[in-house]
Amino acid sequence: MTDNEKLAELLFPDITLTPQQYEERYPARNLPDGARVTRFAPSPTGFLHIGGLFAAMTARLTAKATGGVFFLRIEDTDKKREITDGVTEIVKGLSAFGITPDEGITGFDVENGAYGPYQQSKRREIYQCFAKELVRKGLAYPCFCTEADLTALRERQEAQSVNKGYYGKWAACRNLTFEAQSQAVEAGRPYTLRLRSPGDESRRITFDDLVKGKIEMPENTQDIVLLKTDGIPTYHFAHAVDDHLMRTTHVVRGDEWIASVPVHLQLFKCCGFKPVKYAHIAPIMKEENGGKRKLSKRKDPEAAVSYYIEQGYPKESVIEYLLTLANSNFEDWRRANKDAPQSDFPFNLKKMSASGALFDLQKLNDVSKNVISLMTADEVYQAATAWAQQYDEVLYRLLTANEAFAKGIFRIDRGTAKPRKDIAKWSEVRDFVTYFYDALYTPDYTLPDNLTPAAAAEILRAYLNVYDHTDGKDAWFARIKELCAPLGYTPNVKEYKKDPQAFKGHVGDVSTVIRIAVSSRRNTPDLHAIMQLLGEEKVISRMRAALKFYEEA
Questions:
Q1: Which domains, ranges and CATH numbers included, belong to the chain?
Q2: What pTM does this model have?
Q3: Nearest-CA neighbor of 380 among 440, 413, 423, 431?
């Protein structure tokens, strides 16, 4: 038995399975040629970031576009930073926007799939098996340096103006004899396990990033830590082992990890694994003071996925907007495929922006208004009440007290060639329906600058004399037009624009007064439909109240 083999047994006496046995336990996936296996692998250390949702969506689209598999793995080796039930928050956050993994973690302590466990904290023996194999091959060794030792090392390197780190001649434990190593272990000295890097500072690596293109970087020379003193792996080592055994083909992750690629590719090679392909996506940015910065968990409420849930953005809206950030050709595709499901879009990693997308809440609102405008009244009612049940109890009670009435509200100007786009999120429904419910309605009789209270009173007196609730839309509007000439207004807007001095205003001004009296709004959906839904008694009551206000003004 060689010294390396003896060291492997000394460090890992309880590890009896071999890498080959794990290879057999987790065989190559039976998928079509070209199918990609991707994953989302967050840490449960805080809320799900919108950038995380973006990365998960991108990874899932990549897998789905090729008939592959998308799975959720939880990287929970940093127990000090883990939040209570952080795993459930991640699963719920993804699920809320329709991102359902094909396998992996599905809830707290719940998973499905043949390549688990999908939580790193439950894979300790797997990592130690491959770590043991690296020791056996002479590619890993125990490092007994303390924090004080490492601090002193950095100070010496700074004094000599050389690259900092644990490598080459600076790696104090790299060439310890087996006798020295065994004495230290048997004495109970804590140690980390380090990679004996075969890297050379004179060599460079190149790899093709599916988003950034060809990248060339120096080879890794650092003897990085593989296992910490508690036997838990670092991200680097766990990434290599997990993505190999789970048969990941493509890793989609933030471009802050580009600097680690030389380490990761070296680990794949040392372990004898086929390397994955990388797609490093740029962070979602925010414009501020003429510049750009990353969306901040601390500064920006919209950085948290929970923000969109609480505000009531439909999941389709958020994904639709993120697709516009993901591929620049999505909006052209959507214009040509107005009714197609999002899943029909031919997503391509290579069409992602290498420099990052600028997050724009106003653009999200515009996208969401369009998405909601294409929903049926029933769909809007179901989604709005589901949101209100959790976030607006008063609105929920009002909407559900008379379902037919509520659906009638949402049916106005919906299903037409050019539907109105009044609602961007369910939290805006309360304001949208306010004038339909006395419990929410507060009269506001403010007029446009071109109309006086006296003129408004005159219009309302005249209209109350001719108002007939049984009128269809054409007859209803004809009555309003008939009022115009006797009151000094023209029923023809073009005629008013040609000679505005000849009239007090036009039919639109007359309609505006009636609209304000009934709804306290200058802009609403179809006024005739609103009045029909409110009912004759309420319409007359509101017009009389407005008339009284203007007469006393």
A1: 310-341+369-440 (no CATH), 453-552 (1.10.10.350)
A2: 0.90
A3: 423
